[in-house]
């Protein structure tokens, strides 16, 4: 079993929809949690970053962490075609490398 | 452009040949990471450097793989006697050793195709 599990999708939604992306993890040592967005044939770029359980909001994006359930989510409001990409969750603990999920491919249709 | 730079962007080689990839990190970043990503998968950690010291290597990094970071600046990743299973995107990332842990800045990647 992988340390970080993520549904690969693809997830197809109409423009304007609310998107929910999720990851589960098994390593209770993970202390910080991130979401990266990766466009085709490009490197990942950081979207959201959080240390603690709870919610963090940035514009149309909300990251949610539930350490007790070992579950993290990313919500995208008012989704746009430009949001079509692969979304990678990533997590780590102090000083160590990040461990990534397999990524969820999102398609937002106009 | 002050981002992470990788070269070449795409390399096609025949099985058994050696290949080398270069990464130039963001100049003030002292930590540099190499990841490998295959189609439909997330990046997998290979190795990382703090300045010129290679501090950790994954079990994925077989004896055919070697990475260096002379003088703590750019880094190279060499793959000897390439195999078809080495075909992947090789991603380089960098960050400060201090401050927010984990916020990696990635390059565009070097895509390897082994025929």
Structural class category of chain A: mainly beta
Low-pLDDT residue intervals, each spanning 5 or more residues of chain B:
none
Note the quaternary state here. heterodimer
Percentage beta strand of chain B: over 45%
Short description:
Chain A is mainly β and 110 residues long. Chain A has strands spanning 4-6, 11-14, 19-25, 32-38, 45-50, 54-58, 61-66, 71-76, 85-92, 99-100, 104-109.
Relevant terms:
heterodimer, A: 110 residues, mainly beta, six-stranded mixed β-sheet, five-stranded antiparallel β-sheet, 0% helix, globular, B: 115 residues, seven-stranded mixed β-sheet, four-stranded antiparallel β-sheet, 11 strands
What does this structure look like?
The complex is a heterodimer of chains A (110) and B (115). The N and C termini of chain A lie far apart (37 Å). Chain A has 110 residues and is mainly beta. Chain A is built from no helices and eleven strands. In chain A, the strands form two sheets. In chain A, strands 2, 4, 5, 9, 10 and 11 form a six-stranded mixed β-sheet that branches. A five-stranded antiparallel β-sheet of chain A has the order 1-3-8-7-6, with no helix packed on it. Chain A is 0% helix and 55% strand. In chain B, 0% of the residues lie in helices and 49% in strands. The relative contact order of chain B is 0.33. Chain B has 115 residues and is mostly beta strands. Classes of the chains: A mainly beta (110), B mainly beta (115). Chains A and B meet through β4, β5, β9 and β10 of A and β5 and β10 of B.
């Amino acid at each position: 079993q992988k340390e970080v599990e993520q549904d690969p999708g693809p997830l197809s939604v109409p423009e304007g929809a609310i998107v929910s992306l999720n990851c589960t993890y098994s390593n209770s040592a993970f202390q910080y949690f991130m979401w990266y967005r990766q466009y085709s044939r490009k490197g990942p770029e950081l979207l959201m970053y959080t240390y603690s359980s709870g919610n963090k909001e940035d514009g149309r994006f909300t990251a949610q962490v539930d350490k007790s359930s070992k579950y993290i989510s990313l919500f995208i409001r008012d989704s746009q075609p430009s949001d079509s990409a692969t979304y990678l969750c990533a997590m780590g603990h102090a000083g160590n490398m990040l461990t990534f999920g397999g990524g969820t491919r999102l398609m937002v249709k106009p | 452009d002050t981002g992470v730079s990788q070269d070449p962007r795409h390399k096609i080689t025949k099985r058994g040949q050696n290949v080398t990839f270069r990464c130039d990190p963001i100049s003030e970043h002292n930590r540099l990471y190499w990841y490998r990503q295959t189609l439909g998968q997330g990046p997998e950690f290979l190795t990382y450097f703090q300045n010129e010291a290679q501090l950790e290597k994954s079990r994925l990094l077989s004896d055919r793989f070697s990475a260096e970071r002379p003088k703590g600046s750019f880094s190279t990743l060499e793959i000897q006697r390439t195999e078809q299973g080495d075909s992947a995107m090789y991603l380089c990332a960098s960050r400060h050793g201090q401050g927010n842990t984990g916020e990696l800045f990635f390059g565009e990647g070097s895509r390897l195709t082994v025929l």
